[in-house]
Amino acid sequence: MLGLLVQTYRLVRAVVLLVRQPEGRALALLVVVQLVGGTVFYTLQEGWSWLDALYFCVTTLATVGLGDLTPATAPGQLFTIVFILTGVGLLAAFISMLAQPLRSAPERGRR
Question: Please, what are the domains in the chain?
C-alpha cells in the first residue's frame, strides 16, 4: 500500500512539473480537449452515458480497446478513426513528457 502511495505522489509531482512548462501545459490541454470532445460526441451520437463515453475514449487512446463498447453508427465509426489517429499520438507525447521528470530525478539511496 505504501508503494502505491509513493508512486501516486511521484505521478502527481510529475504532472505538476509538466504543467508548469508552456509545452507541457499546451499538451495537457490538448489531451483534455481530445477526451472531452470524444466524450461529448459519443454521448450525443451513440447515446452512451457520460461515463461510458469517457471510458471508451480512455481505453481507446490508451490502445487497450476492450471491445465492450463499439460505435454502432457510421458517423461514430468515422469519428473513431480520426479520434484514434489524432489522439494516440497526443497521449503518447503527453506520457513521454510526463516520464521525463521521473527519469531525470535521481533515485535516492542508489549510487
Answer: 23-101 (1.10.287.70)
